[in-house]
Design a protein that fits this description.
Blueprint (H helix, E strand, L loop, with lengths): L2 H8 L3 H6 L8 E4 L5 H8 L4 E5 L2 H7 L4 E5 L16 E7 L7 H6 L1 E12 L20 H8 L3 E10 L5 E9 L5 H4 L3
Parallel strand pairs: 1-2, 1-4, 2-3, 4-5
Antiparallel strand pairs: 5-7, 6-7
């Protein structure tokens, strides 16, 4: 990986940076953690972090104080969601989409938990990979998922971003029902 690409993969998503402070005290899951950029950020905010990825090199790069890494392939045939209900104060997912996980993700949030999700959306093929519709959110899909699972939407965006590279993305910050309404205004 060249230096410019490495710097781009180390940059914390502005979306995650904006909404991570809303996550109440407690354990946070960084799902499909990649090289751990968000896991390290969340640990720096004082959270105990569980960082999950299927790539052993990604897991090795994520090791840091306050972070427990776990290598799991959640797309493997027969794989089931490995976490119990109401475990995490927050769950962060970026640049990853596997639709069968949504129910488990939402169920694993504490009653006052926060979901911060950002990934590629329909139309991204115009900018490069991924271009396969199986890996792209449909228009409003994250909003629909939030509604189906009783989450309250704090913020939602669907459109083109220019950093770290031009892409079509969809992103949401949504909270469970017991999240204090006044705290959501901080975002």
């Amino acid at each position: 990986m060249n230096e410019a690409n490495h710097a781009a993969t180390d940059t914390i998503s502005p979306w995650v940076q904006r909404f991570a402070p809303l996550i109440p005290g407690g354990e946070v899951l960084d799902l499909a953690c990649g090289n751990g950029r968000h896991a390290r950020h969340l640990a720096a905010l004082g959270h105990a972090v569980i960082a999950v990825d299927r790539d052993p090199a990604a897991i090795a790069a994520t090791t840091a104080p306050g972070i427990v890494t776990t290598q799991i392939d959640l797309e493997e045939e027969g794989a089931t969601w490995p976490f119990p209900p109401q475990r995490f104060a927050g769950i962060v997912v970026t640049n990853y989409l596997h639709r069968p996980l949504f129910a488990g993700i939402v169920d694993s949030l504490l009653p006052n938990g926060v979901l911060v999700y950002e990934t590629f959306a329909d139309g991204n093929a115009a900018f490069g990979k991924p271009g396969n519709p199986d890996f792209l959110l449909k228009a409003g899909e994250l909003l629909d998922i939030a509604r189906q699972h009783g989450l309250r939407v704090i913020a939602f965006e669907d459109g083109i971003v220019n950093q770290p590279k031009q892409a079509m993305v969809q992103r949401i910050c949504a909270v469970k029902a017991e999240f204090p309404r006044e705290a959501a205004l901080l975002g």
